[in-house]
Amino acid sequence: xxxxxxxxxxxxxxxxxxxxxxxxxxxxxxxxxxxxxxxxxxxxxxxxxxxxxxxxxxxxxxxxxxxxxxxxxxxxxxxxxxxxxxxxxxxxxxxxxxxxxxxxxxxxxxxxxxxxxxxxxxxxxxxxxxxxxxxxxxxxxxxxxxxxxxxxxxxxxxxxxxxxxxxxxxxxxxxxxxxxxxxxxxxxxxxxxxxxxxxxxxxxxxxxxxxxxxxxxxxxxxxxxxxxxxxxxxxxxxxxxxxxxxxxxxxxxxxxxxxxxxxxxxxxxxxxxxxxxxxxxxxxxxxxxxxxxxxxxxxxxxxxxxxxxxxxxxxxxxxxxxxxxxxxxxxxxxx
Amino acid sequence: xxxxxxxxxxxxxxxxxxxxxxxxxxxxxxxxxxxxxxxxxxxxxxxxxxxxxxxxxxxxxxxxxxxxxxxxxxxxxxxxxxxxxxxxxxxxxxxxxxxxxxxxxxxxxxxxxxxxxxxxxxxxxxxxxxxxxxxxxxxxxxxxxxxxxxxxxxxxxxxxxxxxxxxxxxxxxxxxxxxxxxxxxxxxxxxxxxxxxxxxxxxxxxxxxxxxxxxxxxxxxxxxxxxxxxxxxxxxxxxxxxxxxxxxxxxxxxxxxxxxxxxxxxxxxxxxxxxxxxxxxxxxxxxxxxxxxxxxxxxxxxxxxxxxxxxxxxxxxxxxxxxxxxxxxxxxxxx
Lengths: 335, 335
Description:
Strand order of the largest sheet of chain A: 2-3-4-5-6-7-8-9
Radius of gyration of chain A: 18 Å
CATH architecture of chain A: Alpha-Beta Barrel
Oligomer: homodimer
Distance between the termini of chain A: 19 Å
CATH topology of chain A: TIM Barrel
Largest sheet of chain A: 8 strands, parallel
Number of helices of chain A: 12
Structural class of chain A: alpha/beta
Order of helices and strands of chain A: EEHEHEHEHEHHEHEHHEHHHEEEE
Helix content of chain A: 25-40%
Largest interface: A-B, 26 and 25 residues
Shape of chain A: globular
């Protein structure tokens, strides 16, 4: 039977939420990943040193062992350098949200005035704190990411030593930016390597495949697959796994977010194997991220096997992507 | 208080379904419309003279008075001329569905081979039976209608005397066809004069705004509004009002269809008034259709008034568009 082993898998974009939901979902990621970049969009957002330390403690209390590292992030606001120096040791990155663009992002940036942001971004550059960005405008849903490219360009050229990660990219427009600006990087989810808008609203409407940024066009999927499958040195896996209670997904006005944490590695094996690129998965799911972020995760060895795996209907009330469907790879062992 | 009177409003594209659903929704349309083109996509589809006659009888039994005319349609298959002659008196049009493209369309056309269709389409042309077309390919959801334009062109040029109605158009591409081919006409829904894809999946996901063809881009909306508001002589109102039980809309895998029958005239007044074009609404909602189809509906006079109207949460278990929201026009009287 075909197997594939991954060392120190990393999820470079993860939502763990808080309280009961945190306790439900954190162990699922900690089981199969060495570490994860944890998003700060709680209510209220993680925006102080105390917030970061306390949230990390709650995460560690929710995971069953020590073999998982939550890489903490701070919610972007205009901070001064003294504050950033005080918090630098406790965070791995700062996450910037345009105001109101996605779940719990109301306190984000409402205009990209570089002069207003200069103190913070220059300090981040000096302190080597990467900037993670949810890159969408408030425009038409299919254009939001592409419209944001001019802001990425402005950020990248204004702060050439600042590492800027274009989070959960979904378009050819974003892929094309990777080779244009040295300091632009990207995370890509597993669902954006599988879905187009067709899967979300092309047949029946599928709330469990509804996320932000929304899945785009076939040519966008092709561009994303191209850089992921070759493990382009500037792209990293980031699941953007986003748990919502079942009722919030299956009602009028369904919340955005696809829950993939417990099936991400299986799906990654399936997609990379399907294209004959399993050998590149290690770079995509760990090595690129280690090099880009300069992080050294604890040892974890995950072996997957090509055999049928039926995705559970839910995990503690959270419905995963492909619930009830059969994947072709399963986790065999973890050391 | 501002009022507006419409004479003989016609809904040139309507789904009445059958049995309990028919009894529920038919009176809602019969209340405010003089007549409606009734779609034949029942299970099994309306495809024989007996089907047409029996369905019309069931519709008439479901409406409370004689002031409503169901204009019957036949489900397109390749029929011979003798059959079409035998059924011509009982139908107003024939509706063509590409196979599997929408609700109950499995028995539709699977390839547009003009030679295979020639006997039927030429007979329809000779007998002056209009062809109503659901114009979508099975391509990417945002491209399906635009991709179908080459088939419209083929049909229009192959049968230049056949009246072809592009049903529920949603794109600038379809609007642009109206002035290119003398024998192409179009219906436009009220929801496609209000929505873009942003309203469906741009914020939360909205199952009650999910329909086929899906609402498209802002520039498409602008093009549709342009021809509707000017009451372009080749466009007609057709609601495509499509009732589904509430559970079929608010579950994983929500069915496509927006239910607008009981609020269509109110919304039309709102939109036309908003753009200062109320004077053109009579053409859009009745006179163009009378001329294009050569039909003479029974007298009905509907007066609407500009005052708040709260849309009911549901009509017999069917949730309408804008349920619970307040419209700015209401039906005042019907004679």
